[in-house]
């Protein structure tokens, strides 16, 4: 995008939004369609580009008749999703998903706002915006499809909270969700999307509903790093609401130079479907399809070993890594591979699992699969018992790192490798 000299701030932003509106916005996309906007190849001060600031991989269809506050599709209600940003920008666009829906999803109103200080469901004064789709404020998303909004002018904060409020007038037939969000979002009866106050949002939900990505228009960030993984990346044992997952800590370390997008799914595998499609199957949508992506960090594979009797040989996991890395590099990405963390003491971490984990880690460290290595194994293990997590990093079940462990994982990623 050309840099426009001499325009006042408002006029320049209007010009940028007018140009951006022509690029992949307000359109329906099939689930396997890429919507990847390349990150700027010129110095960051010379151009503005779309870069992802937040993402959540779609996991499953929720039961449409579930109770309020559960991971269910709240038809006739408004869900106010709370999302934490990785980078800031001058405008935003959102992606809604009906990937697991069995019927068209009708959306009657969507708004975007910066969360008010102090938490809760209230919007910061003057920040609430209606979100259009191809110029309209209503939309219908076919089963299996995504919908990208038009750009919305909004000062999006770096390392802050946004709220995407979505009203669905009818019961959702299998609403697409990301459960185990480790973030409280809110539910209200009726259409409350345009209310600044959070007083109507009397119910809570631990899942993100419908929204799967937020991009920002930025001239500062150089691109996005996507972490694709399982529950260790999803942050299962980190503190709820604290944004203490290892990708959050990595984002803090990078300080806005790159965004860090969390494509983790608890229970996810590399090779096969379990909780959500396998990492190889969802690579195009959840990684290659993210805006401005430059680098992918691959941190998945332990569930392939733990979920017997379907556990594959270590050689199959290594071969899966090679296929994933080759596909990502074919798209021009840099690929960082993470070793598998210790699991000794976990109920499913048998001697066979530990042996396969060691074989896989040795293959990753040899350096002929990935462009760089993040050695989570060495970072987290107990020096006196290398098959176990160090006590300071153990989240309690001998598999998932707690907050200190997540911080330590982020330190194992060399920013120069990105």
Automatic annotation (TrEMBL):
Gene Ontology terms, MF aspect: hydrolase activity
Domain SGNH hydrolase-type esterase: 227-407
Family matches, as SUPFAM superfamilies: SGNH hydrolase
PROSITE patterns, per the entry: RIBOSOMAL_S2_1
InterPro entries, A to Z: GDSL_Rv0518-like, Ribosomal_uS2_CS, SGNH_hydro, SGNH_hydro_sf
Assigned keywords, A-Z: Hydrolase
Record-linked Gene3D superfamilies: SGNH hydrolase (3.40.50.1110)
Entry protein name: SGNH/GDSL hydrolase family protein
Organism for this UniProt entry: Streptomyces sanyensis
